[in-house]
Amino acid sequence: MLTDLLRTTRARTLALAAPLSNEDAQLQSMPDASPAKWHLAHTSWFFEALVLQPHLPGYCVFDERWPRLFNSYYESLGPRHARPQRGLLSRPSLDEVKGYRRHVDAALADLLPFASDAARALIELGCHHEQQHQELLLTDILHAFSCNPLLPAYQPQRPEPARAPAQAWLKHPGGVIDIGHTGAGFAFDNEGPRHRVLLEAFEISNRLVTCGEYADFVAAGGYREPLLWLSDGWATVQAQGWQRPLYWQQDGSVFGLHGVQALDPDAPVTQLSFYEACAFAEWAGARLPTEFEWEAASILPGFEQAADPAWGAWQWTRSDYAPYPGFKPAAGAVGEYNGKFMVGQQVLRGGSLATPAGHARPSYRNFFPPAARWQFSGLRLAR
């Protein structure tokens, strides 16, 4: 039920922020990341601006000064504080932001019993939007902690490692394939309209590339061989001094949500850019799948997302993030959610260890710029 989805989603966000100190929640380590406090406030602003103000008669905005602070990129909803400066917002305090969340939660509880279908659809969208920010909260605080010489753990207890299955190639015959959301259950607008694509026969790996396999690429000089890299990728490697995945340490250990740990050769490699994924695939004599190949193959027997959900990774595809045939953004502010970002980005499929349970699905289209490497992003090979 929608009431349960809203309750559990809002509670989980607070639970994810619970291990953080007030100082932790204030950190912004780069322009692409946001402080945990901002995520807590922005997800409440989303409900306030898109659900409560237009659909709850008599609703009073919590603080008329705050929309400017917590609007992300919705031009139609007013001016915004600059994204790279979100870490400068020491006020409002974390306690005040939590009070904002309680105010919005109480108003949503008032609205739900008589909410129209349109309002209920927006509440459902708001829940899935907040789930996206739950993953971003974790990836952003991990990046912030990686900048601390102490390399603190977000959560010291680490799940038991799972063994990766033996690598195998799964065959797909190709043909005319239906792609996109089927219409049952929730989906973001960028997952449709459902349409047909023509695929040539292909093979795809049953599992993700592991840390052990990627370590072989590093040891073989993969970051020093320009012929393996796309031109923009090689320029980025040189400019940024990349030598290994983002959180791999010089001593062979890996930094993550559970602090510094020994590299697990069976775990999927993560924190890779699209450029790094392409270079590895070239080195391995393979390629990245297109997003359509990935979706078509996801129903094949033996297609593993990961040996264990706690070790999953989003998988870069060779597909540009572009609208499907017949795609039209929704009217109003909601239309700014996805459509205007359909340029200069690559599609990722799957889901990661930080993705909330039940959030992703085979038609789900994540997207990031090709140089982004602070997400739990890895790869699966195709040929």
Automatic annotation (TrEMBL):
Pathway: Amino-acid biosynthesis; ergothioneine biosynthesis. GO terms for biological process: ergothioneine biosynthetic process. Residues 6-135 form the DinB-like domain. Keywords: Iron, Oxidoreductase. Gene3D superfamilies: paralog of FGE (formylglycine-generating enzyme) (3.90.1580.10). InterPro entries: CTDL_fold, DinB-like, DinB/YfiT-like, EgtB, Sulfatase_Mod_Factor_Kinase, SUMF_dom, SUMF_sf. Residues 167-298 form the Sulfatase-modifying factor enzyme-like domain. Pfam families: DinB_2, FGE-sulfatase. This is Ergothioneine biosynthesis protein EgtB. The lineage of its organism: Bacteria, Pseudomonadati, Pseudomonadota, Betaproteobacteria, Burkholderiales.
